[in-house]
Design brief:
The protein is built from 10 helices and 5 strands. It has 243 residues and is an alpha+beta fold. It folds into 2 domains: 115 residues, Beta Polymerase, domain 2; 99 residues. It has a 5-stranded mixed β-sheet with strand order 3-4-2-1-5, with helices on both faces.
Amino acid sequence: MNANTPGNPAAQALRLVTSRFPHALGAVLGGSVAQGRASASSDLDVAVLLPDSETSRREVIRHEGRLAELFLNSLDDIPEFFEWDRARRRGTVLFIYDQGMPLLDPHGHLSRTREQARAVLAAGPPPLAPAEWQRGRYGLTCFMDDLLDTPPTDRFEQLALADFTLREAAHLLTAHHGAWEGIGKWLPRRLLEADPVRGKALLEGHLAVAAQADPAPLAAAAEQVLDLLGGPLREGYVQPWPI
């Protein structure tokens, strides 16, 4: 993708940055557009480095008819922000800097920031605490049991339980591998990156509930995840208060 071609999203993103942030110290285009997976309606995910006098923030705007999500950070805030992004276990902005397409870097600040992002990504997300593992095992066990107990005629409840089962299983499976997790369309992408076999079983199981009202494949896939972590957790679970 050539950022200088007028009609493409990279050119739009560059015009956005130079028009709205002429004092920017660097900018990078990330997300589906930078990866070549965008549709005509995909938004622009743009991270912009600003001078320390600016306030770090997130903005959503429309530019030249296309939605743009802006991740605006002052240079001074970058280390703390990257640690916050890591603590969420998703690394949203970290991945934009790591995998995105540079738009401008007049003084080398973007290159140095990308190296910082790559170092944080290489360290991986923080491990779950013992209480988080126990809470996750118990939660996934409950969702799995309720999914199997719900009649296929109760489609609303069955689909809701399938969604929670998939999300909790994905959370635990990516954490087991020390991998980054995702939400929305990034959930299946990150899940398959972390564990192609078990991840695919979870996703196919979720599809079986949606398409065929059959909970058995998803429950079996969830139990495979639980077996990695000591098995289902029912009686014996204790949650201290306050959490």
